[in-house]
From TrEMBL:
Residues 271-501 form the Sigma-54 factor interaction domain. Keywords: ATP-binding, Nucleotide-binding, Transcription, Transcription regulation. It comes from the Bacteria. This is Sigma 54-interacting transcriptional regulator. The keyword Cell wall biogenesis/degradation does not apply. It comes from Tissierella simiarum.
């Protein structure tokens, strides 16, 4: 509270000057620590001095909370003990308390040092005292105001901090669409530099993503697609017109996948497909999931290698332990070793002084997934081989060996055998990794999976973008079967995402929603390697999915298929459904 006086210093000086001019005497303000915080004339250059050892009149005001009007200081009992009494020049003193609620936080003191001054005051004493009391009240309300202001500033500061910590962008704009304020997230996403440009343009695309509006934000020559909410906050104030709270579309998608558990709970049921190849793949995963042996997953990009690796982990008896994925192609060679092995305190210049736990150690008791192992530099291959052989690691800068219990699953889209011939992949590591090989066939070799996968992805993106995918026009399949799918399932998934984006309300998914490259690829009389059995099995599965596999469900499915329940049972057995 006392510090507040020092924050109001300029105003205090102004106060004492005004009182001094009216009363024609010197005026000072004393705080509750008996420190002079403002003064005129004789006291002007004695601010901040303590008056404690001769503050007899001031003390009385603090004790009683009442005005002290002393007409003859030297003779007054209050001054009896004052050691300055003999040299005291004062002819009259008025001390008025400055209150803050019930508390006394200071005094306003006016001192006459000659007869004329005293006479001037005494002639109008009551009026002057009321005047000083009013000034004390004014000071009290200024203190309250200042405290309120400070509280608000603290809350604003706190809000600012909170806004900068959240994972959403916040931009405040004025009525001319100029940025007034923004948080760190918005700054990073939109690359805001208000020194360069403050103008921003926000337009709704009309799309909804997970129940939020999608917007195109144009700023500084760039366009960003975000999702969020706009709030009108113009309460007759041109300077603050609107707040937009947003997140990037990609982040939202990630969050959705995290929340829906699709990243963590990837089990066999997340591997979609009816083809023999997929069925065989799933069977193999459940057979080998709990084995301790190393697995090498091969397959073209986008065939689902990571999905299979996660399923292997989640189906294994290590499922509740960590699954740590390292993408060997995404980490620069110079960082890969410390990323994998970690380092001890002060291992090298520039290293984190606390040391770092490597990904291999993090995977202890769980699964280490070495993705894109074909991109691992040769010297690192040798080190990883040692981990496989010794089941232990030595951190960089450390001498101690740490025993580990990890299961290694590696994956690559490269032909490692070719690489061995070219001396770019170690033969010994290859055999160590390839104990259980799992090869995932490209989508073009199992086109019968396209229908179920595409339908699955349409549903997924329908949920994400809050669009109802009511039906699919059957003509679409001819195009999807004819396409080559060099990007495999990832490309099919992206196509489904594109189609859902293109879908307007009340439409059904049809060829007009497909990307042009797929429409262009259609060859006449395409040869689809689907047998009658495949179609029959798929139909039965679809009906069982719809009606359920209870007896009632099966009866309904048989009725819809136009076959007897006995025939249905026979076919279920035949197709191993
Ligand atoms: N059988 C499947 N069922 C459902 N989704 C699948 C299937 N196979 C792949 N996907 C999906 O396709 C996308 C690509 O899969 P994933 O990342 O596992 O492929 P990858 O072979 O590891 O690719 P890359 O070699 O490029 O790393 C992912 O979104 C994955 O969920």
């Amino acid at each position: 509270m006392e510090q507040l006086f020092s924050l109001l210093q300029d105003e205090l000086n102004h106060f004492v000057q005004v009182i001094s001019q009216v009363l024609k005497v010197d005026v000072q303000i004393i705080d509750s620590q008996y420190k002079r915080v403002a003064g005129t004339g004789y006291w002007q250059d004695k601010i901040d001095e303590s008056i404690r050892d001769h503050a007899y009149i001031t003390k009385r005001v603090f004790e009683t909370g009442k005005n002290a009007i002393i007409h003859n200081p030297k003779e007054n009992l209050i001054c009896n003990n004052c050691n300055k009494k003999d040299n005291c020049m004062e002819t009259m003193e008025i001390s008025i308390p400055i209150k803050f609620g019930e508390r006394i936080i200071g005094t306003i003191e006016c001192v006459c040092t000659n007869k004329e001054q005293k006479e001037y005051i005494v002639n109008n004493e009551n009026t002057y005292i009321v005047f000083i009391e009013q000034m004390a009240k004014l000071l009290e309300s200024r203190v309250i105001e200042e405290i309120e202001k400070r509280k608000k500033l603290k809350v604003l500061d706190l809000l600012d901090n909170v806004l900068n910590k959240i994972n959403e962008g916040v931009v405040i704009i004025d009525s001319d669409c100029n940025i007034v304020n923004f948080n760190n997230y918005a700054k990073n996403i939109l690359k805001i530099d208000t020194n360069l440009n403050r103008n921003i343009n926000i337009e709704s695309t009309g799309n909804m993503v997970l129940k939020l509006q999608e917007y195109k934000i144009k700023y500084n020559g760039n366009t960003f697609t975000v999702v969020g909410e706009r709030y009108d906050v113009n309460y007759g104030n041109q300077e603050i017109n609107e707040v937009i709270v947003f997140t990037s579309r990609e982040t939202l998608k990630e969050q959705f996948l995290e929340l829906s558990g699709s990243k963590h709970d990837i089990g066999l049921d997340k591997i979609i497909g009816n083809s023999k190849v997929v069925k065989e793949l799933k069977r193999k995963i459940s057979t080998v999931a709990s084995s301790e042996s190393t697995i090498l997953i091969t397959g073209e990009s986008g065939t689902g290698k990571e999905l299979v690796a996660r399923a292997l982990h989640n189906e294994s008896n290590r499922a509740d332990k960590p699954f740590v994925a390292v993408n060997c192609a995404a980490i620069p060679d110079s960082l890969l070793e410390s990323e994998l092995f970690g380092y001890s305190k002060g291992a090298f210049t520039g290293a984190n002084p606390k040391g770092k736990i490597g990904k291999i150690e993090l995977a202890d008791e769980g699964t280490l997934f070495l993705d894109e192992i074909g991109d691992m530099p040769l010297y690192m291959q040798a080190k990883v081989l040692r981990v496989l052989e010794d089941k232990s690691i030595v951190k960089l800068g450390d001498l101690e060996e740490k025993l580990l219990n990890i299961r290694i699953v590696a994956a690559t889209n490269k032909n490692l055998e070719e690489m061995i011939k070219e001396n770019t992949f170690r033969e010994d590591l290859y055999y160590r990794l390839n104990v259980i090989p799992i090869n995932i066939r490209p989508l073009r070799e199992r086109k019968e999976d396209i229908k179920i996968l595409f339908s699955h992805f349409l549903k997924k993106y329908g949920n994400i973008f809050n669009k109802e995918v009511r039906a699919i026009d059957k003509d679409i399949w001819t195009y999807l079967y004819a396409y080559d799918w060099s990007g495999n399932i990832r490309e099919l998934e992206n196509t489904a995402e594109y189609s859902v984006n293109m879908l307007k309300n009340d439409e059904i998914i049809s060829i007009e929603h497909l990307p042009s490259k797929i429409l262009a690829s259609r060859k006449p009389n395409i040869e689809i390697k689907i047998t009658l059995d495949d179609v029959e099995r798929q139909l039965i599965e679809e009906y069982l999915n719809t009606y359920g596999s209870s007896l009632e469900g099966k009866k309904k499915a048989a009725e819809k298929l136009g076959i007897s329940i006995a025939t249905l049972y026979r076919k279920i057995k035949k197709y191993n459904i």
